[in-house]
Amino acid sequence: QQQVKQSPQSLIVQKGGISIINCAYENTAFDYFPWYQQFPGKGPALLIAIRPDVSEKKEGRFTISFNKSAKQFSLHIMDSQPGDSATYFCAAPLTRGSTLGRLYFGRGTQLTVWP
Amino acid sequence: EAGVAQSPRYKIIEKRQSVAFWCNPISGHATLYWYQQILGQGPKLLIQFQNNGVVDDSQLPKDRFSAERLKGVDSTLKIQPAKLEDSAVYLCASSLGFGDDEGFFGSGTQLSVL
Question: How far does B113 lie from chain A, in Å, by closest CA?
Fold first, then answer.
């Protein structure tokens, strides 16, 4: 079964700082790596996703960096805000394709941004 | 557009009792998923429906868990009998059901088994 290792487990960042969350995967030739954001009492929501034909994807303050040779991808949150405080999950597909049912989720990173 | 609706939000039961969760997906979404999220972990797929047919239930503990999606719209997940280790948030999600479509999660039902 696909393994996805996420770190750190928790992260505390000051407002305006950069938050970096890392994810490592094993033995996959497949092509979709999303990050999900989950607020307390809510379900996860797709934040940003990348395919390995590019090394970086940016959407506003959120950037995914992808290193295919190292089998790693990371989420960078620039100018972190208190409203970004949430749990973030990386995911990778169990089989080819990006539909939700094929994704194996990491254990999550709890981000706290202090004002 | 209304999101994925789930009820109840919270449920507390004693072990060996039964419990049922209900989910109404986003209108027009053919694919429906049930996930189990244990505290401190990511969601784990229990079962996936395409319309009213099961696509994947390989991780569903079938000796105690069951799910149905009659008429291909809303769905019910049941646990009978519950064990302490079933304490978790049960999330329902839905998607259009074709291509690389995005799924949308409901807010979940938090189950505590005492």
Answer: 18
CB contact under 8 Å between B40 and A107, yes or no, is yes
Mean predicted lDDT score pLDDT of chain A: 90
CA distance B97 to B53: 12
Between β-strands A4-7 and B53-56, what pairing exists: parallel, antiparallel or unpaired? unpaired
CA pair distance A58, A87, nearest whole angstrom: 20
Q: What pLDDT is recorded for position A99?
A: 78
* Mean pLDDT across A8-25: 97
Of B42, B100, B107, the CB nearest to A106: B42
Candidates B42, B65, B46; CA nearest to B56 is: B46
In this structure, what DSSP letter does residue B109 have?
E
Chain-chain contact of A91 with B42 (C-beta, under 8 angstroms):
yes
Region for A83 from its dihedrals, namely left if φ exceeds 0, alpha if ψ lies in -120 to 50, beta otherwise: alpha
Task: Find the angle CA(A106)-CA(B75)-CA(B7) to the nearest 5 degrees.
Answer: 75
**Chain A hits for B43, Cβ within 8 Å:** 44, 89, 105
Which residues of chain B have a pLDDT value below 50? none
Nearest alpha-carbon partner for A12 in A80, A60, A63: A80
The amino acid at A19: S
